[in-house]
């Protein structure tokens, strides 16, 4: 009988770092805001002051805060000064935990990555590539009624990642993989917002532009889709 691996219990420091990370990336705290003192947070969260101090040092290394001796701890302008640790912090949170600015930045990254792949694929595509995209689109259509929204979101993510693979620009695929988890959260929202039929129809439109070698048509379809998604998110929060 196989033993079931227990999920590791997070340390107090990990709990602290995740909470502050979530609060910063959700927009509760904005760049330049002064955070509560180590003593205040330690008392509020029932942790030792040393744990909080070490947590803030990790957050500083992640590019989310900066520490000014004798002045306090402030939220960094992480979109300008962040690093790979900042990106890891973003993608390790659920899409629902991210503020509007962060969501927009991630979708800008997607447009840059997949937009480049779409333009490259339009120029180099083969008949086999078109047949492959049509095949996986039909597979999504045939299975969609029997899938939960999260499983369906995974299928749509993989379809769009396939654009990067077929483009021949393999590094772009690595970037798509980097934002996989947070992208799934966005796809779940997208499918609930527009419905499966609409989403599949857009896949077919992408294929049509790729088959016609219409680089700008494919790119613009992606760009306008992202803009419309963001506009609808804005309406939902008003």
N-C termini distance? 53 Å
Shape: elongated
The chain-level structural class is mainly alpha
DSSP strand content: under 5%
CATH fold topology of the largest domain: Four Helix Bundle (Hemerythrin (Met), subunit A)
Instruction: Work out the helix count.
Output: 12
The residue ranges in which pLDDT falls below 50 over 5 or more consecutive positions are none
Task: Return the CATH architecture of the largest domain.
Answer: Up-down Bundle
Rounded to the nearest angstrom, the radius of gyration is 21 Å
Oligomeric category: single chain
CATH H level, superfamily name of the largest domain: GntR ligand-binding domain-like
The helicity comes to over 70%
Q: Report the average pLDDT across residues.
A: 89
How many domain units?
2
CATH class of the largest domain: Mainly Alpha
Major beta sheet, strand line-up: 1-2
Q: What sequence of helices (H) and strands (E) makes up the elements?
A: HHHEEHHHHHHHHH
Largest sheet: 2 strands, antiparallel
Protein name: DNA-binding transcriptional regulator, FadR family
Keywords: DNA-binding, Transcription, Transcription regulation
InterPro entries: GntR_C (IPR011711), TF_FadR/GntR_C (IPR008920), Tscrpt_reg_HTH_GntR (IPR000524), WH-like_DNA-bd_sf (IPR036388), WH_DNA-bd_sf (IPR036390)
Domain HTH gntR-type: 10-78
